[in-house]
Amino acid sequence: MVRLLEYNHLFAVGTIFAFLDAWNIGANDVANSWTTSVSSRSVTYLQAMCLASVMEFGGAVGVGARVADTIRTKVVNTDLYAETPGVLMLGMVCAIIASSVYLTFATKVGMPVSTTHSIMGGVIGMGIASVGANGIQWVGSGSGTAVVNSGVVQVFLAWILAPGISGIFGAIIFTITKYAVMLRSRPVYKALLTVPVYFGITASLLTMLLLWKGGSYAVTLTDPQVVGVIVGVGAAWGIFIAIFLCPWLYCKVIRDDWTIKAYHLPLGPLNLRRPDAGPPPPGHCGTRNFYQGHLTQEELDTRRARAVVSEEAPRGQGVTDEEATLGNGSPELKGNNATNTASVSDDGVVNNPARRGQLLPPEGIQNEKQPEKQKSIVGPKPDGKWYSGSVLFWYFKYAIFRGVDVDIVNSQKDKRTLLTGDLEAMHARVAHYDNKTEYMFTFLQVMTAATASFTHGANDIANAIGPYATIFQIWNDGALPEKGKADVPIWILVFGGAALIIGLWTYGYNIMRNLGNRITLHSPSRGFSMELASATTIILATRLKLPVSTTQCITGATVGVGLCSGDWRTINWRMVLWIYAGWVITLPCTGLISGLLMAFIIHSPRW
């Protein structure tokens, strides 16, 4: 084997764009996976970034596949390049360039796309340019699911299968949760009873995912043993949660013990013997308001009616601007005469001769505490030359942490594009459930998202850098990888994992603020249902060897859960259409870029 030193430039260019491709996977694919947790307020953006970084990198380097398909989707026969491995190396460089350029554009405009389909389109384009359309495998060979789990046909099938199946699972899971817990009397007690059950089911499903969609580790268990492991892990985890987490939740949520901390979790049942904590100190926030900033239909109608009355009132008569709103928007009756003679009717109308017709907001709006503005991590830019230490450090913080300073949830409510529509009206049609009950599901959602993130790192990272591993192996050995398999050195896994994390931290916020609540209103119970449905779909597809995309699964589950509100208007269909359009144009766009680039190079004159 002879290293192809004459192709050093191809290896260098491939390395640069492979980094950009992995960077975009973090900024687009991984960010899209964590949007649900952040939009539900189960975790903050900073917490999501930390969890995703640890789980993705741990999955990629710890159990990531050490051997990857030269072309994962098997759309081009690599044997056609046996005599000219350098051409395949060039083709992979063109495919990575096309994929990274397109993903950069999609991430910039906030369009979640399938990164697997992106690199696949690049491979198809370079394949047509180099060996012709007959060299492309349009349909898989064999019988059964083998016909659709390889070849170009798998992309078209994924457009239907992934969102459809995950949407059905999402609707089933949330419907059960809705009628078994959320709409029952004393729902917080029902949630406490179901938490161990849901944790056990989630652990069993995620164990299936790790066993059937594993990375470098080999599972040598028989089918009965696999079933035993799945059931055993779920039961053991459910019992563990019942012993340690449930008593802690009972004290914190039901008994309103504001003194209990996370480090009290290991005490388990002993927490039930804690004395009464008494009233909380002034300024204590209590349970997080997961619906903060989202109005009910009654509150929205009242606010808009008040705005109409204020606009129609003649200037200088009736309500002045200063009297109309004060503080957080609630009216205040000013003046002794107004205060003494005013009364408020049941429908929120002020019965005051001087202010007749003015509307008061519902009590929930009047008393809602406004969220405190979070402290900026980046901070203001210091004075000095651009090359001074303090300014350079500020630029570093700005590049890495500027997303942390972005209020993701509130950014999702900004009406900056035609895609958002009337988000207030859409959110108002969604039912608001008990906050304490919602809090119970935050732990489930974090567990589901973190484990799915670990599995994503174990599988999708190696698959995404498969073309780069092929470039390296051809450059290093001077020959094609044997049997269509490229060895993946550990440094390539570290390289891909690091690029992914950098992309997630530096630009993941852009995808997050364009999704989540812009599709439908999120809450922990809904978010857990979405993520569990997505994981279930991936598990089922893995077992049946059907092609699905993580991006498409979570989008379908979001729509399925949103429709459980009983009103199709609770879904932003314009945003759904925008996302679907992104899936459809991914393959032709990357294929066109890669094909044109490949054709331009191989048909250029030689000196």
From TrEMBL:
Gene Ontology biological process terms from the UniProt entry: phosphate ion transmembrane transport
Claim: GTP-binding is one of the keywords in the record: no
Keywords: Membrane, Phosphate transport, Transmembrane, Transmembrane helix, Transport
Compartmental location: Membrane
Membrane topology: Multi-pass membrane protein
Superkingdom assignment: Eukaryota
UniProt GO cellular component terms: membrane
Spans through the membrane: 87-106, 118-136, 156-176, 188-212, 224-251, 490-508, 577-602
InterPro entries in UniProt: Phos_transporter (IPR001204)
GO molecular function: phosphate transmembrane transporter activity
Region (Disordered), start-end ranges: 302-381
This protein's record includes keyword Transmembrane helix: yes
Family: Belongs to the inorganic phosphate transporter (PiT) (TC 2.A.20) family.
PANTHER family hit by this protein: PHOSPHATE TRANSPORTER (PTHR11101)
Record function comment: Sodium-phosphate symporter.
Name recorded for this polypeptide: Phosphate transporter
